[in-house]
Amino acid sequence: MSVKSLELLIRVGANLSSGVRRDHWTRGQIEQRQASALASLRAYAFKHSPFYREFHRGLENRPLNELPILTKPVLMDRFDEVVTDRRVTRKAVESYLAAGDFERRFLNRYRVMSTSGTTGRRGIFLSQTTEWADYLAGLARVTVWAGKAPSLRHRRRTAHISSTIPFTVSAQAAASIGSPLAQSLRMDTGDPLDRIVSRLNDWQPQVLTTYASMAGSLAHEQLEGRLNIQPEIVVTAAEVLTKEIRDRVAAAWGPVLFNVYGATETIIGGECDRHTGVHIFEDLIIPEVVDAGGKAVPPGEYGDRLLVTVLYRRTQPLIRYEISDMVRLASGPCACGRPFLRIDSIQGRREDVLYFPKLGGGEVAINPIFFEPILGPVRASAWQLTREPDRLVLLFSGLDQNESVDAIGRNLVASLSQAGAVVPSLTISRVDVIPRGASGKAPLIVSKTNGPAGEL
Q: 439 to each of 212, 242, 435, how far by Cα in Å?
C-alpha cells in the first residue's frame, strides 16, 4: 500500500468514527455544527474564491436561504474563479482528463472527477485528500448502519459492479476503498451479463455494490437460477431505486439492500436498518428542498430541485448548489433515533420529466415516478422508456414470454391518456440488454426532447 493510500485510509477511518459518533447527537447539536461549519465555509470561500466575492457581495451577513442559487452551468462557466487554488484552471483540468493518466493526481494534489453530462452539461469536480476522505467515510457509514462495518482484520469479499471509467466517482470510490478494506472484484456494468454472473458465482461476494438497475438484473438472474450467491449486504447507488427492484432483491436474498444517495459533487445520505428512507448526512451537508422559484417545500411534498451546501468542500466550494433531483422529505423522525432529516422518495431528475400535448390544448408534464407502478410489475429483468420527439420507445430485457406486449402497450397508453396526455406512437421491443450511458448507468426514463414548449 502506497503512502498516499495509507494516508487516505487513516483519514477515512477517523472521519467514519467521528460520523458514527454524530449519529447519536441531538438535533440541536447537529444544527450547532452546521452553523459553525457554514460560517467557516462562507468565510473561506469569500476570501479565496473571486467568484464568491462577487456572487455573495453585500450578502455576507444574510442567512443561507437568502443567498443566490448556484447552478452547474454557472459553476462551469466561472470555474477558474470558483476554485480557491489559483493554479487551477479549467483548461488545465480538461487537458489532464484528456491525457488519461489517472495514476497521478492533478498538480500532484487533486483527484478529478467528471459527470457524464446527461443533464445537459458536464461538471468537473476536484477534491483534495481531506475532502475525498469525507466522501468515502459517508459511503462507509451506511455499511456500519447495516452492521457490516469495513475492517482491516476481516476483509470481506466485495464485488463492485459500476463504471470503470477512471474519471467517474463510482470507479474512483471502488479503487480507493476496495483493495485496502476488502478482497475486491471490480467489473463494469457494460460487461456481458452472463460474464458478470459467472464471475460472481466464482467469487461468492459477501458484499455487492452496484447501480440499482444492475441489482435488479442480478436479482432476476438469482431467481432464475443462473446466479447463485448469498451476499450479506447489497449496496445500491447512483440511480433511482424503485420498489420493484427492492422487492426483487428481497425475494432473491432477503432484506439485505441498503441504498446510498450521492452525486459526483458530494455524498448526500444513506439508508439505515429501518429502511424508512435516506438519512441525509446533515453533519456534512445542509440540504434545502425547494420549488421552481427557490422557495422551501415542506415535508410530505415533492420539491422541484435539491440545493446542497457542502460543508467539507474548500477546493471548489458548493454553497446552495442545485441538484435537479425531485425529492420529498419525510415527516417526523426515524425510529432508529438518528437526528437527521430523511428523504422518503425520489421522483427522478427534473430533466427526466416527460412532456406531452394535453387533451384540449397545452402540455402535460409526467414525472418519472408515474411509470413505476405501470411498468415495474411487468415480469422482466429491466425496462427503459425513451421519449423521442415523435414517439415513445419502450424496451424490455428478460421479458417473460407469457407477457403480452400488446397488453403492456394498451395499459401504458390508457394510463397516460387518463393523465390528460395525447400519446404519440409507441414502439415496444424485447432486447438482450438495456442501453447504458457513458457512466454505465441504465436510466429508467430517457428524454430526447427539449422539455416544455419553448424550452431549449
A: 14, 20, 11
Residue 163: in which H helix or E strand, if any? none
Question: What are 92's three cell numbers?
Answer: 488545465
Task: Kindly give, in sequence order, each residue whose CB lies less than 8 Å from that of residue 381, ignoring residues fewer than 6 positions away.
Answer: 216, 217, 220, 221, 397, 398
Output the nine-digit C-alpha cell for 21.
459518533
DSSP codes joined into one string, 250-267:
HHHH-S-EEEEEE-SS-E
In tens digits, what is the pLDDT along the chain, a chain of 456 residues? 566 777 888 899 999 999 999 999 999 999 999 999 999 999 999 999 999 999 999 999 999 999 999 999 999 999 999 999 999 999 999 999 989 887 789 999 999 999 866 555 789 999 999 999 999 999 999 999 999 877 667 778 999 998 888 888 888 888 886 555 557 899 998 899 999 999 999 999 999 999 999 999 999 999 999 999 999 999 998 888 889 999 999 999 999 999 999 999 999 999 999 999 999 999 999 999 999 999 999 999 999 999 999 999 999 999 999 999 999 999 989 999 999 999 999 888 888 889 999 988 889 989 888 898 899 889 998 899 999 999 999 999 999 999 999 999 999 999 999 999 999 999 999 999 998 877 788 888 888 875 554 332
What sign for the dihedral angle of Cα 4, 5, 6, 7? positive
Overall pTM > 0.85 = yes
CA–CA dist 34, 312 (Å, integer): 11
Q: Which three cell numbers stand for residue 220?
A: 432476476
Query: Which residue ranges form the domains of the chain, and what is each CATH number?
Result: 3-350 (3.40.50.12780), 353-447 (3.30.300)
Say how far apart CA 214 and CA 236 lie, in whole Å: 9
